[in-house]
Amino acid sequence: MKKIFVGFALAALSASSFAANTHGPAGCGLGTEVVFRDANEWHEHVLAATTNGTSGNQTFGITSGTLGCQDAGGPLAADVNSFIDANLEQIAADTARGDGETLQALADVIGIEQADQPHFKAQMQANFDTLFPGEQTTSGQTYNGVVTVMAKDAALSKYLG
């Protein structure tokens, strides 16, 4: 029950729960890279995030490594950090349930083979408290939690760089 409550609490949080990255709160995408390149005001960040999210270019950028969505470094596959940053609330909700589109997409972005995906999802759900230690969890904390969980698991550690 605690996992479901924290998952829904995270889903209710605003974009302030995201860790600041090189793009600020709007994340990567066309809105950040082209339209609002030097955003400083809150409304510019909101418009950049709206542009990034509504036109599908952020998803394209994360998948292709373009539009400023290149890998920020770390032991996981390229763009995992950006994906977690852009989808933290949905990942929390899916992780609490142990399944869902966003958790599936996370497995795909990491490069988890089809045969290992049920185990990956089960490990993410079993270690929910490591991935989401509190209501103000940042995407960076979740990224580090995913790395920690995968490093401790023989079947999943092979996916770390």
How are the SSEs placed, and which strands pair?
Blueprint: H1 2-12, H2 30-35, H3 42-54, H4 57-64, H5 80-97, H6 101-110, H7 117-126, H8 128-131, H9 139-151
How would you concisely characterize the structure shown here?
The chain has about 160 residues and is mainly α. It is built from 9 helices and no strands.
Characterize the structure shown:
This protein has about 160 residues and is mostly helical. Helices cover about 60% and strands about 0% of the residues. The protein is built from nine helices and no strands. Helix 1 (about 1-10) packs across helix 5, helix 5 (about 80-95) crosses helix 6 and helix 5 (about 80-95) packs across helix 9. It is elongated.
Tally of extended strands? 0
- Mean pLDDT over the residues: 76
How much of the polypeptide forms β-strand, as a percent range? Answer: under 5%
Q: Overall 3D geometry?
A: elongated
* Uncertain stretches of 5 or more adjacent residues: 5-21
Biggest β-sheet strands, sense, barrel:
none
* Class from helix and strand fractions: mainly alpha
**Count of helical stretches:** 9
Q: What gap, in angstroms, lies between the N and C termini?
A: 34 Å
H and E string = HHHHHHHHH
Helix content: 55-70%
Radius of gyration: 15 Å
